């Protein structure tokens, strides 16, 4: 279980202390945290809790949303929070089209410019910004970065130590170019974060909370795992699933199901 | 209004005779028809009705669904129906992943093979098969062909007279490679059908019936229109919008709204 990381959004309603205790009890060493939940429990308290339990924070979700007025201040705060938590990566969900705009290419350029503004702060804090391409169904309202190729293009002008990319199977599984782009990400040392969730249908209204646990859907998760490994990625593998029904289950049940899905559908043959 | 075509799915509940009379009254010369509606009214009756009114059928929706057991017989029937109606194009929605499969690349190859089986019948009937890439959110359950580039790759082995592609703004607007692929489609003489709908959010459950009338959303429709024109396309431009609320309006209202959206957001400056 060295590489397995439990992203807390998978058990959204699990209180932070129970999440930490549950992970320790299950032999899980890594967690991915979210800003809202961290703030609700208190940043310093969360840091102490997680460190005291011997857990590593593999990523903080999320910065980005570069169309909001306070985007620079808020993202600098997010970088600082990641640094405090010891999270090496801040996941960026870049935001959709500005209100009333139809200029998608322009919106994508603006994301790149905004990331550039944050690079000095990220380098100083020792936190890597990880551009996450989201599924094209989120293009207008959540994230204009829709493919791994676009994320890598946006990252390219900046040092790899400051800007990487996220490979999330849920968002990228449909893309026949993703394998070449994973290779490219490895060559360019941009692989900052690897998240797994499965694709299931029908999608719910709003399409945000319709992900499946590993193995529940149609994504060839092991092909992704092999591809990022072959590209030189040796970092954590986060299970991150949002689903309203899953969230109604007890946190420990969700964690156990995430571990089982990871073992059966993500981990390599030589053990997880 | 020479190029405007009203796809009947935009006013799904408008009875065929009313649709035809409404189009004539509005000065519309072209319609896109669906197999189910055509069968319900009767193929011969529909053919007579449409011809008698002086309307042109610009496309028939739809063939495809190549994972079904009777795919060859059913698609040959669809080709024959298109020929009877005088529709030059049969739109193909290729189908999702086979049940239980995670082999997306294999599913895409099978679509290409299935289309090849239909080519002789299509050529003999004088009906062009038009591969429609659907938005990646439909990849698992409706259509494994997700980009215009993939559609063109699948069409490439076959004569352009037999196999073309559909450019539908709703499905392709997020793709930064679509402009190059439209150019390629023009060079290869593959542009068989051009359909417009706008992207609006939030998406409804199931995501099928959430399209917007031209101008209601964030797609740069005129850029698409200019791109297909620049690629040499001179054919009809179908407005095809599926939306449950839109369908509750009287057919003539929907047609008028489609015409207005087309004039304001699709037609070129020199008149529609």
From TrEMBL, chains A, B:
Entry keyword annotation includes Metal-binding: no
Gene Ontology MF: a single term: isomerase activity
Keywords: Isomerase
Record flagged with keyword Transferase: no
Domain of life: Bacteria
Gene3D superfamilies: Divalent-metal-dependent TIM barrel enzymes
Pfam families according to UniProt: AP_endonuc_2
Domain named Xylose isomerase-like TIM barrel: residues: 34-257
Protein name as annotated: Sugar phosphate isomerase/epimerase family protein
Native source organism of the sequence: Micromonospora zhanjiangensis
């Amino acid at each position: 279980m060295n590489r397995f990381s439990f992203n807390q959004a998978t058990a959204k309603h699990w209180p932070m202390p129970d999440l930490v205790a549950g992970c320790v009890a299950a032999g899980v060493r890594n967690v991915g945290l979210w800003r809202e939940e961290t703030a609700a429990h208190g940043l310093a308290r969360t840091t102490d809790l997680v460190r005291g339990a011997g857990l590593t924070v593999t990523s903080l979700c999320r910065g980005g949303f570069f169309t909001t007025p306070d985007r620079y201040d808020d993202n600098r705060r997010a970088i600082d929070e990641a640094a405090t938590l010891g999270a090496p990566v801040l996941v960026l969900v870049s935001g959709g089209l500005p209100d009333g705009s139809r200029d998608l290419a322009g919106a994508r350029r603006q994301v790149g410019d905004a990331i550039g503004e944050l690079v000095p702060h990220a380098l100083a804090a020792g936190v890597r910004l990880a551009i996450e391409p989201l599924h094209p169904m989120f293009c207008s309202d959540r994230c204009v970065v829709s493919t791994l190729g676009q994320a890598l293009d946006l990252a390219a002008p900046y040092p790899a130590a400051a800007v990487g990319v996220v490979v999330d199977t849920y968002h990228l599984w449909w893309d026949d170019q993703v394998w070449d782009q994973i290779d490219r990400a490895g060559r360019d040392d941009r692989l900052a974060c690897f998240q797994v969730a499965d694709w299931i249908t029908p999608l719910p209204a709003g399409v945000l909370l319709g992900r499946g646990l590993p193995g529940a859907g149609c994504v060839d998760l092991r092909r992704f795992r092999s591809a990022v490994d072959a590209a030189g990625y040796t970092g954590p593998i986060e299970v991150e699933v949002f689903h309203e029904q899953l969230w109604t289950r007890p946190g420990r049940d969700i964690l156990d199901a995430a571990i089982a899905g990871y073992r059966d559908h993500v981990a390599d043959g030589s053990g997880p």
